[in-house]
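Cont'd.
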Amino acid sequence: MNETLTVLLDALPFVLQGAAVTVTAVVGAMFLGLFIGVPLAVGQVYGGRAVRFVCDTYVWFFRGVPILVLLFLFYFGLFNFIGLNLNAVAAATIVLGMTSGAYQSQIFRGSILSLPKGQLKAARALGMSDALAIRAIILPQALRLSIPGWSNEYSIILKDSALAFVLGASEIMARTHFVASRTYQHLPLYVSAAVLYFLLTWAGVAALRVLEKRVRIKGYVH
Amino acid sequence: MLKRAAFVIACLLCMVAGPALAEEKVFINGIDANYPPFAYVDQSGKPSGFDVDAIDWIAAKMGFKVKHVPVDWDGIIPNLLAKKIDFICSGMTITKERAEKVNFSAPYWEVKNVFVTKKDSALKAEEIYGKDVTVGMQAGTSEAKWMAEEKEKQGWKFTIKYYDSAPMAIEDLVNGRIEAAAMNYPPARDAEKKKPVQIIGIFGEVEEFGAAVRKEDKELLDTLNKGFELLKADPYWEELIAKHLNK
């Protein structure tokens, strides 16, 4: 037991460095996903045929291909082909972000569709352009409604980020595995990794809860 | 116009800075950090092991800078070909298939392959082939490939189960999910010291380890070959063996 404890304590700083890698990748991916997901959702709901087709294809592709395959495809294939020399963490962040963008777009689309249709009509009647109405009327409401779904997405990417080691990004799981290979304390080490993920999930979800409360418009929703 | 000018300047900068940066080049050795005692991450989180120490010595002797980066074993050759790493010196067996993609240095180490069982198991090495047992091994390794091919040819009865790393196979062996594990001798010896398992016998062919480089990097290959030659002639070689492999 004592030996196990020593191993865990010794491994802690090393694995925590991995947590920094994980958090960087996940936070980066969430924001990239946001910047991709919002236009995709708007395009899917309000776009013309061509725009809808492009958005649908994007979502279909990134939801249809496993992340592991995407990581390989982009890192060893596309990025290399176009001469983009990214390190493993950056590449993993981008691929996770692009994938998350596809999933996030559906969260935003759901929120947009949940708003009464009359709002856009009323905005038009007031003389607003569609672009302005979407930016000033629709999205401020839709994004607020999306936060619960977004916290779900956060916890999913957090765990998907363990796949980044196929590119060589030494995140939590990879580092746990390294220590386990040396010490043969697999079970206690993986339990610790689980606890670490649990804490990170909890922290992120709690932060989003706070955000949800902060940006709530008084008297607007239940 | 401004954009184009910026682009031209950027290109020029690259041309000027390129060679200057090349002098500072740090060669990256991709390692499988789940492969003690050849390559692993030590208590302080630094890459360590027989191969890591050997390459550090060679780098110092031959006058180049080196960094060891843990890479997923399944993706290690794609990483090399995509220039994410510059060479692989991490207990990689020289095989014909791999040699089609990369160039190998002269062999620097030989290993046998062994079967490992739980300490209290009565299973004998020669019985494994004809029995309905499950044997674990690391996916993507030369021994796993040899085993799968020979099993097909000889009609051996056991089932192969693949793992991410040899220590994972050992872990499942101890859990009783598989009856035996197959791997190179040094990691098996390492496991024997840390887990209630035993080596019961050898199988397959003797494998030779070599460092792998991209086909076009002839100069680096020469440097590594020369380095290993010097290292093997140096007393440090015996020291390394004693430190990592015979302890």
